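dumping this here so i dont lose it
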């Protein structure tokens, strides 16, 4: 018997037994998935029907003919046609823990049996408090002061909240800096930050953003100089009008382009001199470098005013310093995340921090090195077909067919048919194909097999 009814419920032996049985059943069925498999011919028609229905109801076809069956095993996911694929894109960087991970499923059950479907600002259970503490403590462990954590349900919303916090603090400044070719999300606000014309076609203008060229590792000093010059020019053009700088420190949607500490510091110095808030958008890179937060990897701890995370964290969040606390009324949400999500988030973040993934000798670096050396070997054999790889940690990208967009798309489709999920990034003439690894469940031999399939697929295309 616990002091609260809930404590009694969570410790009820029937519940423990039920969970044990669910996890046993999961283990047994998931274990049937042992590698790539073609679809079952008997399911072909019904699967195609389902895909067609899906396309009709959602107003357009899916990128891949992918409808999950609801189960997987580590890096393998089963689709509803009975086929099994290597999931090396993980829903664009979400399934860090692969598919049907028992720890994640158990965490989700713990959340799902609570009284709330969705937590929200008038309705937060104790799990939320635990999660906020974990995120805040980990974020501040090397001296950052972004101790306040505000949850939300998408990366775009986490970014919107970051922009609101910064605009309010810096009012009446109403411009923002962002990097060329950055991605910030698809809300009406973020569509004007994301540096891609097609993503805001026909939308009314909402924000004024000045773009700074991103770091170029082939021209370290030159790219610092040109970024600094561009920034100073805009500040001179609009004195006192820049509220913040959204820094996507690793450009995921653009194809895993990696920044540099000295480069960031040169720009941050100008921010600090001009009362411009530093906002690190690591919705995609969270948990994918050798540190939990990418700003920690780049050692920008002391400079971060606001940070956004998402994807791997399952729940999205905006972190901010005391100095950037919004006034009452600026932010509130009916939904901050489902109870199952919040519980899974805690499990995943805790596992990343304690499971041997981080650090120079951690699993993330180990997997990256293996993937990189395999792709380099393929590139040496087929230099006209594959260049790279690029990226960092659990974000790996390559150029196929010299960045030609239709050919890159064709490659991803063929790779999918051959059993590997990847995705396009960037755009002509620097289209890339990228992978966001299910770090928790990937082993070197999986990477070797995937690289074998990449090479085979390249050979199939002229
Ligand atoms: C850097 C970055 N910011 C924001 C977002 C938007 O996140 P969401 O798609 O969850 O709204 C993304 C999504 O890819 C992203 O990569």
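and the seq i came up w/
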């Amino acid at each position: 018997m616990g002091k609260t009814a809930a404590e009694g419920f969570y410790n009820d032996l029937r519940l423990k037994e039920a969970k044990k049985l669910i996890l046993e059943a999961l283990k047994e069925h998931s274990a049937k998935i042992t590698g790539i498999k073609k679809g079952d011919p008997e399911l072909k028609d019904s699967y195609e029907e389902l895909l067609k229905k899906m396309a009709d109801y959602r107003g357009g076809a899916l990128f891949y003919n992918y409808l999950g069956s609801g189960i997987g095993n580590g890096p393998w996911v089963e689709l509803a046609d009975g086929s099994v694929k290597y999931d090396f894109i993980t829903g664009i960087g979400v399934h860090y823990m692969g598919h049907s991970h028992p720890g994640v499923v158990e965490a989700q059950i713990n959340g799902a049996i609570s009284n709330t479907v969705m937590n929200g600002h008038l309705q937060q259970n104790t799990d939320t408090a635990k999660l906020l503490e974990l995120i805040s403590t980990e974020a501040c462990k090397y001296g950052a002061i972004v101790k306040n954590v505000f949850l939300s349900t998408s990366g775009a919303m986490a970014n919107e909240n970051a922009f609101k916090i910064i605009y309010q603090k810096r009012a009446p400044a109403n411009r923002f800096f962002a990097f060329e070719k950055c991605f910030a999300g698809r809300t009406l606000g973020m569509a004007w930050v994301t540096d891609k014309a097609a993503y805001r076609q026909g939308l009314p203008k909402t924000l004024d953003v000045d773009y700074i060229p991103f770091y170029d590792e082939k021209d370290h000093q030159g790219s610092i100089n040109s970024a600094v010059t561009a920034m100073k020019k805009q500040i001179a053009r609009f004195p006192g009008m820049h509220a913040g700088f959204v820094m996507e420190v690793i450009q995921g949607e653009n194809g895993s382009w990696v920044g540099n500490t000295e480069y960031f510091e040169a720009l941050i110095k100008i921010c600090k001199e001009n009362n411009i808030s530093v906002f690190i958008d690591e919705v995609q890179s969270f948990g994918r470098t050798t540190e939990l937060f990418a700003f920690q990897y780049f050692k920008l701890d002391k400079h971060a005013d606001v940070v956004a995370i998402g994807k791997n964290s399952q729940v999205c969040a905006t972190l901010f310093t005391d100095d950037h606390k919004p006034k009452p009324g600026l932010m509130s949400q009916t939904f901050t995340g489902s109870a199952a999500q919040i519980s899974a988030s805690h499990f995943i973040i805790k596992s990343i921090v304690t499971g041997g993934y981080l650090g120079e000798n951690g699993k993330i670096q180990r997997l990256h090195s293996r993937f990189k050396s395999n792709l380099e070997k393929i590139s040496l054999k087929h230099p006209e077909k594959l260049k790279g790889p690029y990226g960092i940690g659990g974000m790996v990208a390559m150029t196929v067919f010299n960045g030609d967009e239709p050919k890159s798309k064709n490659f991803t489709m063929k790779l999918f048919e051959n059993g590997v999920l990847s995705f396009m990034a960037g755009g002509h003439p620097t289209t890339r194909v990228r992978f966001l690894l299910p770090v928790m469940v990937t082993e070197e031999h999986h990477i070797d097999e995937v690289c074998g399939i990449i090479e085979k697929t390249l050979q199939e295309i002229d």
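Residues 92, 154-156, 159, 183-185, 248, 252-253, 281, 283-284, 310 surround pyridoxal-5'-phosphate (CB under 6 Å).
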